[in-house]
Fold this sequence. Notes:
Strand order of the largest sheet: 2-1-3-4-5
Radius of gyration: 17 Å
Largest sheet: 5 strands, parallel
Order of helices and strands: EHHEEHEEHHHHHH
Low-confidence stretches: 135-144
Helix content: 40-55%
Number of strands: 5
Amino acid sequence: MFKVMHWVMVTRSQILVDLLNTRWPQQFLVKIHNVAPDNIIDNFTENRVGLVLIDLSSVDIQKAYQIQKKLDKERSGVKVVFIHYPQQVDARFLVQQNITAGVFYSDATLDCIGTGMAKIIQGQTAIPDEFNRGHLNDVEDDEESETLTMREREVLQVLRSGSTNIDIANQLFVSESTIKTHLYRAFRKIGVSSRGQAIAWAQTNMHEVVL
């Protein structure tokens, strides 16, 4: 019999959790527990949890550092993975050799993150080479890629129900201008030119999630 793994997702974005739940439980045989940043330690009573994912798009970097430090001290063996890692902010102090197992930039695709998570499950790490070299290189926007990033998928997931840009921004804890940028890039990648076409594409090509 296969053993179900238990992971904790620390985020304020239910959309992100719903998106991951459309794929990861089947892909990795895992149960994802969603915990708000302020309650992570108080609610961390599940001894079977071996991995904690922290969403840096909705969790303050300093708060993420505190969470990881406390886990390292109180929950031996637990590994931490950072997703939506900021490219324009130097947050290298978050990456600690003894506990950090993965770092995924904000422009990482869901497939890319899935590949990295598969390595982590096997006892490896999924940390970009620049961290191992002790410094961050300038990371260019992935303008050439035609694959939707995880963030773009989140935006389209909310858009599929007809939400306004302000609604999407509120749900994903970002500014309206950031949503406009994500939509512009997503429209180009999926080959549409209007909001209606994008909604139709999302309804056809993305799993429905219940909010």
